[in-house]
Structures are given as structure tokens and as C-alpha cells.
Design brief:
alpha+beta, SH3 type barrels, Alpha-Beta Plaits, 4 domains, five-stranded antiparallel β-sheet, three-stranded antiparallel β-sheet, 8 strands, elongated, transmembrane, cell membrane, MS_channel_C, MscS_channel_2nd
Length: 394
Amino acid sequence: MDTFISEFILPYINQNDMVITGLFFIALGFLLFAVMRKVRKALLLKVQVTETKWDDILLASFGKPTTIVLLLLPAYYGFSKYILTPEGLELYRETELNEVFFVIVAAWFLSALVQNVMEFYGRKFIHGTARGSKRDFTARFLGLLDLISVYVIWFVAFLVILKLYSISLTPLLAGAGIAGIAIALAAQDMLGNFFGSAMIYVDRPFKIGDRVKIGEHVGDIMDIGNRSTRIKTLDNELMTIPNSTVSSSIITNYALPDVKIKVRLTFYVSPNSDIEKVRRILLEVATQAADNFDFILDDPVPEVFLLDIEEYRLKYMVTFYSNRYDRKWESRDYINSEVLHRFRAERVELPIPQRKIYVRNKVLPGVAIGTGTYDSMGIEDENDYYGGHDGMND
């Protein structure tokens, strides 16, 4: 580099003022940076129309680092040769900055190349071989592998830089044990999220697009990241849940093993109602819903059960299957509305909570204690005295 500069550049500039010469090289770096940006954009447009993809990968990997190097090298040369004082230059040479610079550039080149190769061939592999949930798992696994590869490259570069400065790793590793405990305590949430993400990658409890219940939160999976999982709730709100919370929560996936779900609806009627008529109405409404809507299945057939006989009501349950977990509320609304219409049309009584009221040791006008009659209290019927009821006697 020194020979090239001394033969082709220095004869054409004034070297009497060292500072001006140094500034010239710095300005030359900015000029090369601007030119390289234009060239890079033109090459990107050209390689996009070629059949081979390696030119795209190489340009995407080396284009930006090369542009930065062309900016820094002339500036680096001008600053070190013409602006630094002799004392500063000696210190600069002793610090091995040349080697450090090229180690960083090499790590940058290599990490960019690995990322672009993983992105292109990983995407090709995912769309070419994987299907369904395997595709989502493969994409997340390759993303994690890409991240680990980049970290390893930069860690090796860091070790090389330490070697250049003759720094022994033994004291660092000894101190790292103590520092690691402190860092682990301070960053336990971050580490928990990282390992939670790894468990999600391995266990695959859900994929993007699934409707899930995580703890008390229900929504559709929008994104699975290395730190958190994002779901869109039923209220159309984006909720971010740390992966440590996800991995330790009970997860219900409504999309697995398939999208078919069982819907249960509960109805209460008066105990005086005709139980067979109630059963018939509920079954007819559920069957009619299966005929009217394609998301309500007629196989398995809807079923009606009399579950409990309670103090003042009978408890029925209607069960049916739907092939759309995202239409659950619509099916509930339709069946509830139709059942209410049929109950009113066929005079099926709904239960009303009843309470018996007893009056003890209280003198009422014109009534002796313990000897009063309903007529003497102005009450025409026993039911009026007890508050009235339509259900079963206690």
C-alpha cells in the first residue's frame, strides 16, 4: 500500500504541510466511500437478473463491508502517517491496531457471508422440503443456528485480538466464573427467555397462526422471537409474552391436533318443564345450526344431556363440534338466540330463584303468636306467605 501511494498519489500533492496531506487522505476515503456506494447499488440491480445466486450472496456479504473499508483505509493511512505526532505514532504501532482492524473486517466479512448463505439456502430448503409445522420449526431452528454461528465467529475474533495483545485467557476465565454468577443473577430474566425460546424451538407447542391460550391469555400467534412471543388477542390487541413465561405456562392450542373443537352450551329451565320437550327443542336447534352453517359439524352429531336437578332448576347441556375455532362465538350466539325464541314460543319456563321467608316470634296485627291464619294476615294463599315459587318444594 505504501509503494502504491508513494508512486501514484504523493507526487501530485503538497507534502510540506503534514496536516493538509493527512486531511487529503481522509477526504479521499469519503470520496471512495461515495463512489463505492453508487457502484454497489448498480451491481445489485445487475446481479438480481442473473440465474446464479452466488453473485447475489457475495455482493450482499462483501458489498457493505468493502464500502466501509474503502472509507477507513485512506483515513487510517492519512491519520497515522501525517497527523499523529512521533510519540503518538509509536504508541499507535505498539497497540497492534493494524492487525486488530483486519481481524474485525475479516470477522465482519465471514459473519455476513454465513448469514446470507443461511438465509438463501435455508429459505430454499424450507420451501422445498418442509411442510406444515415442520416448516415453521425448520425456519426457527435455522434462525437459531444462524444466530449461534454469528456469535461464534465474533467470539473467535475476540480471542484472536486478545492473542495479538498477548493477553492470557486464564485470569479472564477465572474472573469470568465470579463475574458469570453476578451476570447470571442480574440477567436471569434474559437467560430465562433465551432458554424458554430454546424449549419452544424443540417442543413446538404451537406455530405462527395458531390460536392458543397461554395462562389466562387467548389469541393468535403472530411472532415467535428469541426473547418473547407475540399474540393478537380476541380484542385485536398485540400482546408480548416473555418466552420464560410461555415455557412455564399451561398452553392450550386450539389448532391442534386439528381445528375441530367441541363447544358446550348450558341451559336452565324450570323443574315444572316437560323434560322431553326441552330435550327435543335443544336438539332441533343444534341440528338446524349444523344444517345452516358450514362451520358447525353434523358429524359427530349434536347431543343434549340433562346434567343436574337442582333446587329450583334443571340443568341441560348441548354439545356440538365446530371446524372453525375462530367462529365459536357466532355459533354460541345463534344457538342461544334460537333456543330463547323456541322456549318463548313453546312456553318453556325459565327458572326464577326462589326463597322461603319464615316469620317467627313476631306479633302481627290481629294475629296471636303461633295461631295465626293466612286469612287473618290478609294473605290469600300459602305460596304468597312464603314468597311464592314455581319450582320444587323444599
